[in-house]
Amino acid sequence: MNIDEALSCISFDRYELIPAIVQDDDSGEVLMLAYMNRHSLEKTLQTGRSWFWSRSRNKLWQKGESSGNIQAVKRILYDCDADTLLIKVHQKGPACHTGERSCFYRSLQLTGGLGNETY
Questions:
Q1: Which DSSP letter does residue 2 get?
Q2: DSSP state of 58
Q3: d(Cα 112, Cα 118) in Å, to the nearest integer?
Q4: Closest Cα partner for 44 from 6, 79, 93?
Q5: What is the pLDDT of residues 39-79, one digit of tens each?
Q6: CA 118: distance to chain centroid?
Q7: pTM recorded for the entire structure
Q8: Which helix (H) or strand (E) is 20 found in, with range?
């Protein structure tokens, strides 16, 4: 499948963005969530490095461009509705700008009986 064919499979939202979950290819750990537009997905497919669209800075950015904590992309999967990407990577250094390995290092505490059900 060429890049044009790959891009035609993806359902971008009304802002021409798609959420991209980034996961360590070896451990399965979820590292971060970012957004991609057509251009960043195209650059990712071309280079094998992750590129995203910054909604706050309104610009394209390559993960690790300033920190050196790059992501070598191994696989890109998309969900059944083609509106979310799962990007499997080999992460060099921490993925989070705080210095944590993953952006998901904090948790909320459940109260009451929530979460205690077994099936």
A1: -
A2: T
A3: 15
A4: 6
A5: 999 999 999 999 999 999 999 999 999 999 999 999 999 99
A6: 31
A7: 0.89
A8: strand 18-24
